[in-house]
Specification:
Number of strands: 0
Strand content: under 5%
Radius of gyration: 24 Å
Largest sheet: none
Helix content: 55-70%
Shape: elongated
Order of helices and strands: HHHHHHHHHHHH
């Protein structure tokens, strides 16, 4: 009897209820399926890098501040090339240059991480070769490093064939390893002066290096297409992965940097780098102004700015 007093649902009301139910049920299911697929993918191909690679950890274990200058130079050189080598040997290799028909071509997060990796590798090897691998600025550059930086690593990152990017980058890595072997044998030069420490950190902070990814992160939202947001985030991650390897090795071999620059500055800088290297949201969002959505590009920018400020404090302390 009581049901007679309940209002009857019109066909329109029924359709509206079904649409609302579908909305509230389907989108969590869709996100859940995507999450499962993505988690499965991460078991095959690493997307977060909370710790240093085993090769860098081994490098730190087998070297010390008491090592010879040649050993220190070889270790720093190895730290520069490490991340590029890791990307080349990763599950899907160098995917930036994969053909459109290849499924790995559509893995743009890893592709942009690799673009950041080669950018940072180029920057560091350029400074190393032109400043640290010779006694004075007017001295001739080491031929192995010169070929690696000017010819092999300068090669475009997206060439599939004739020659392929992988072939050129592996040649560059081989040239650097040959320099390291010659250095240990006493047949090459490594000369790091106190002013080189300051100049190196200043170079890293400058417009040619860290300012480049920072500019990609702080550009106004309305100037960046939504599909490009994640590209800039993972590009920055690739840059920092290289810098993290190098700075861990650099500070390990030259503890006076920490003594002058302050342990807290170093600790916080590495903490922020770790956050960048583990930044991997399921979906990259663009919260604009007072939006309730996350602004993932803005978060990455804050981490990078903190890294820059801490390294800058260390740099200025070294100068004093």
């Amino acid at each position: 009897m009581e049901t007679a007093f309940l209002p009857k649902m019109t066909p329109f009301s029924k359709r509206l209820v079904l649409i609302l139910l579908a909305f509230f049920l389907i989108w969590p299911l869709t996100v859940g399926i995507y999450w499962i697929i993505y988690e499965g993918y991460t078991l095959i191909d690493q997307t977060k890098f909370p710790q240093l690679d085993e090769s860098i950890a081994h490098l730190l274990e087998t070297s010390s501040p008491d090592s010879s200058e040649s050993q220190k130079g070889a270790a720093l050189s190895a730290a520069i090339r490490n991340r590029l080598e890791e990307e080349m040997d990763s599950s899907f290799g160098w995917s930036v240059n994969d053909l459109l028909v290849s499924p790995t071509r559509w893995l743009d997060n890893r592709a942009n991480r690799q673009r950041g990796t080669i950018f940072a590798t180029r920057m560091l090897i350029n400074f190393f070769s032109t400043n640290l691998a010779k006694y004075g600025k007017v001295d001739a550059e080491n031929e192995l490093l010169k070929e690696a930086r000017e010819k092999r690593f300068a090669f475009t990152e997206d060439s599939w064939w004739l020659p392929s990017t992988e072939k050129e980058y592996r040649k560059g890595i081989a040239l650097i390893k040959q320099y390291e072997a010659n250095l240990i044998q006493g047949n090459s030069i490594f000369n790091l002066r106190s002013d080189d420490m300051y100049n190196l950190l200043t170079f890293m902070l400058g417009p040619e290096f860290l300012d480049q990814p920072l500019g990609l992160l702080v550009q106004s939202n309305d100037e960046v297409p939504y599909r490009k947001l994640d590209d800039r985030i993972y590009y920055t991650q690739g840059v920092i992965l290289v810098i993290r390897d190098f700075l861990h090795t650099f500070i390990h071999l030259y503890p006076e940097i920490k003594a002058k620059g302050g342990e807290d500055n170093i600790r916080i800088a590495f903490r922020e780098m770790d956050r960048i290297c583990t930044f991997d949201p399921l979906l990259v969002l663009r919260g604009d102004h007072d939006s309730i959505m996350a602004d993932h590009r803005g978060k990455m920018a804050r981490y990078l700015i903190s890294v820059r400020e801490r390294i800058n404090d260390v740099t200025q302390s070294i100068r004093r």
